[in-house]
Write a structure and sequence with these properties.
By secondary structure, the chain is mainly β. The chain has a six-stranded mixed β-sheet with strand order 3-24-23-22-21-17, with no helix packed on it. Strands 34, 35, 36, 38, 39 and 40 form a six-stranded antiparallel β-sheet that branches.
């Protein structure tokens, strides 16, 4: 439901639609095969995002103009409810929670300003990672520290896709997710590029989103409006709002994670799209949080169907996509379940004005016809869960509440474990996002508004005791992230989606982002975290005393005032399989250091481990760390003496892992994770420090380097570093001739770095402050170049060798 691209919808007549639905409901749901099989195009790596200049005043104004143009060109659409006369419920929502919970939260823990947006709607979403929070709004991204310090951006979303076909449009509908199974980040936006439509997808090269990203484009052949992504072990799954072609996709995750070429794409034209509200429908995939789904599990999608058979049951529909990456054309997609739920009402009337505000007759869009971003899947071993939510009218008076569900599967099929509709007073709540953490607590973030309360941001949740009882209620007292002070007075479009995410560091804290209105009708956003309950707080700490067959596992536990026990899980995979004895951590309120010795390990084997602590309020899981038995302790030396074709590095080996070091040096390449079978040096044996000379490089090329050490247990590597060889070196005095089409080799335009623009005569766009340069350069400010008009053709020379110059 693009904030600034609308499409004409075709609405079937009630009779025709009813007949179609009866046929669909009575079908045998036989699997379908792909409607589209293809490959994506790898477009290389981005510069480090931390080095890309933020939006300039000119770029900000250009974005505002584009937003204004889209608003003027928007089409006002109506919603159709063909079964309104027979739809249930006829009275109040029977799952309605009419009062707030009483248990206090511990929030907000952090609460800071996110980006603003000129668009209606801003399409605000974002997610937390181990060390960063990344937020996207419509056509830009920004990256923050966990305390709110801006580390990169705000920059245009398409800087993630510089040079990619279709990237110049910066069409938006952005998605950002953290892939905790791979410790990487996923970003996407769509592009309508002439006769082709593309999904632009980027995957971070490391766990640092301010660094470099692998960038891809996929020609999806259909308008991928309102795309929603889910991370799954075998793919990046996507659903879109496309009623006339392929709307279900999966992209080959394993290839994209390593920056590989030509990842495969599989698309389906879903014949089981609910259409009982109107032509708009995105069937989203579930997103795998926490432990990975069991090996071989099909990708799962979920959606709602209001009045599924014309005045009969309201339902959740479950779908499964079995991706066959060996023979993609043999992949299958099917609707596997139609689950009856407590009747709900999605009918706010035939227009998009549903939510009241103070001081204005302008009402806001409730987006009642879709599951909200992002339905979440978790694997708890003995059972699996899905939580999701959508907006409903609780009493047929345009009084919006949030219907939420927890589904559970032990064996066989999914079933509803609990459900509820949160609307505890006269105010409307909508634009929700719901998540379940590893401690058995549910968080719910949302927008709130009414004729007496300005649009603001709040949250609630379900405690572990209510969760264990499957109470169907949010028993945590509602709390405020942002109190609204202004109404949106000109347009009905509010946010299209928000996002609640679970902190991967403790699997307990929730992080939420969504929009609100500031002075002057600005569309602002907040980023906040919260938690509740007294479950333990744990941290996994690096292993020590690692030997060929033994190691010490380390961590910290804060019992949070309740009697708490802990143990470590460990094993050759993140499924672990072995545990240390359960030990008491006491009942204090501060972190205590804990450890456990393990033995009987296999030399040369990589082991994963994490700490787990439990008290009466929940279970907390530490992040996964790993170590390798018999591995030397090795660090990579900083890169120095960088030239056109040479550089210098090295390393330090502080311990040999229990076996003599027989070879050491550095290895390098133009792709991440270089290995010793490629380019490498040989710099002696034994422990200690060494220096390595790297030669035979290509100028103006990025290289990845890491130190290595070999002993009887194998070859092991230090941390990876990167550098870029010089493009050219000038010795003054020198003369340069400027061609009329492009810059001379190795020159750059300061204000267009990272935007893929080249030298041009005439007006230069994209101005920025003077660049921060390291080394000897000349920065040529030629604002009055040529005709005398201010053109901002600021240039940077190649590196200057000033050794012979005073």
């Amino acid at each position: 439901m693009k904030g600034h691209v609308f499409k004409q919808l075709t609405i079937l007549s009630g009779l025709l639609l009813s007949s179609w639905l009866m046929i669909a409901q009575n079908s045998q749901n036989e699997s379908i095969t792909p409607g589209l099989v293809g490959v994506g195009t790898f477009h290389g790596q981005t510069p480090n995002l931390r080095d890309i200049p933020p939006l300039t005043p000119e770029e900000i104004r250009a974005r505002e103009i584009k937003a204004e143009r889209k608003v003027l060109n928007r089409k006002i659409r109506s919603r159709q409810y063909p079964f309104a006369e027979t739809a249930l419920p006829k009275g109040d929502d029977q799952a309605w929670q009419k009062s707030m919970g009483l248990f206090p939260s511990k929030a907000p823990l952090v609460n800071f300003a996110g980006q603003s947006s000129p668009y209606y709607p801003p399409d605000c979403n974002g997610t937390i990672g181990p060390s960063h929070y990344m937020q996207t709004v419509n056509s830009t991204y920004a990256i923050y520290s966990r305390t709110g310090t801006l580390l990169a951006g705000p920059s245009n979303m398409n800087t993630l896709f510089s040079g990619v076909t279709g990237a110049t449009y910066n069409d938006g509908d952005p998605i950002i997710l953290y892939d905790e199974m791979a410790d990487r980040w996923l970003a996407a936006e769509f592009s309508i590029s002439g006769s082709n439509d593309y999904m632009l997808v980027a995957v971070s090269a490391t766990n640092d989103p301010t660094g470099s990203w692998y960038k891809y484009s996929f020609d999806v052949a259909d308008t991928p409006d309102y795309e929603k992504f889910g991370i799954w072990p075998d793919g990046y799954y996507m659903g879109t709002n496309n009623s006339s072609g392929n709307d279900i996709y999966v992209f080959e995750r394993a290839v994209m994670l390593v920056g590989g070429a030509s990842p495969q794409m599989i698309g389906f034209n879903n014949p089981w799209r609910p259409t009982t509200i109107d032509g708009f429908m995105c069937v989203p995939p579930v997103d795998n949080d926490g432990d990975a789904a069991p090996s071989g599990s099909p990708g799962t999608f979920i959606t709602i169907n209001d009045d599924a058979i014309g005045g009969g049951s309201d339902q959740l529909w479950i779908y499964e996509l079995v991706a066959n990456w060996t023979t993609p054309a043999s992949s299958t997609f099917t609707r596997t379940q139609q689950i009856n739920v407590t009747a709900f009402d999605s009918n706010f009337g035939n227009d998009w004005t549903n939510i009241a505000q103070p001081g204005t007759s302008q009402q806001l869009d409730a987006i009642p016809q879709v599951i909200m971003n992002a339905p979440q899947y978790r694997n708890f071993g003995s059972y699996q869960t899905i939580v999701c939510c959508h907006t409903v009218d609780v009493d047929n008076t345009d009084h919006a509440g949030i219907r939420w569900y927890e589904l559970r599967k032990t064996t066989g099929s999914w079933s509803i474990r609990q459900q509820g509709t949160y609307a505890p007073d006269q105010h409307s709540r909508w634009m929700g996002s719901v998540m379940l953490n590893g401690s058995g607590k549910i968080g719910l973030g949302y927008s709130v508004s009414s004729s007496t309360v300005y649009p603001g941001i709040r949250f609630t949740g379900q405690s572990s005791s209510a969760y264990n009882a499957a109470s169907g209620t949010m028993d945590i007292a509602e709390d405020i992230i942002q109190t609204g002070s202004y109404s949106q007075t000109s347009y009905e479009r509010w946010g299209d989606y928000s996002l609640l995410s679970v902190d991967p560091n403790d699997d307990a804290t929730f992080w939420f982002t969504t929009q609100y209105i500031g002075s002057g009708a600005t569309r602002l956003s907040r980023i906040a975290s919260f938690r509740f309950g007294n479950d333990p707080i744990v941290t996994t700490i690096a292993a020590t005393n690692v030997a060929p067959v033994s190691a010490a596992l380390n961590g910290s536990v804060n019992p949070n005032t309740l009697a708490t026990t802990y143990f470590f899980q460990y094993g050759a995979t993140t499924s672990y399989g072995s545990t240390t004895p359960v030990v008491s951590a006491g009942s204090g309120s501060s972190a205590v250091s804990v450890s456990a010795n393990i033995s009987g390990l296999t030399p040369g084997q990589t082991y994963h481990f994490r700490i787990v602590a439990t008290n009466t309020d929940g279970t907390a899981y530490g992040s996964d760390l790993s170590f390798t038995t018999g591995a030397p302790s090795i660090t990579t030396a900083a890169i120095s003496s960088i030239g056109l074709t040479t550089a210098q590095s090295g390393g330090t080996i502080s311990s040999d892992g229990g076996s003599a070091i027989t070879a050491r040096g550095v290895c390098w390449g133009t792709s991440a994770s270089p290995v010793v079978s490629g380019n490498h040096t040989t710099d002696g044996t034994g422990t200690g420090s060494f220096t390595s000379s790297i030669t035979g490089l290509t100028s103006n090329t990025t290289y990845y380097v890491r130190a290595y050490a070999t002993n009887s247990y194998g070859t092991f590597y230090g941390e990876e570093l990167s550098f870029t060889t010089l493009c050219g070196i000038y010795t003054p005095p020198f003369t340069e001739t400027f061609p009329t089409v492009s810059l001379p080799s190795c020159w750059t335009i300061a204000d267009n770095q990272g935007n893929g623009q080249v030298w041009q005569f005439g007006t230069i766009t994209g101005q920025s402050p003077n660049p921060a340069l390291t080394g000897n350069y000349a920065y040529l400010d030629s604002d009055t170049y040529g005709s005398g008009n201010s053109q901002n053709a600021d240039l940077i020379t190649p590196t200057l060798d000033l050794s012979s110059v005073t």
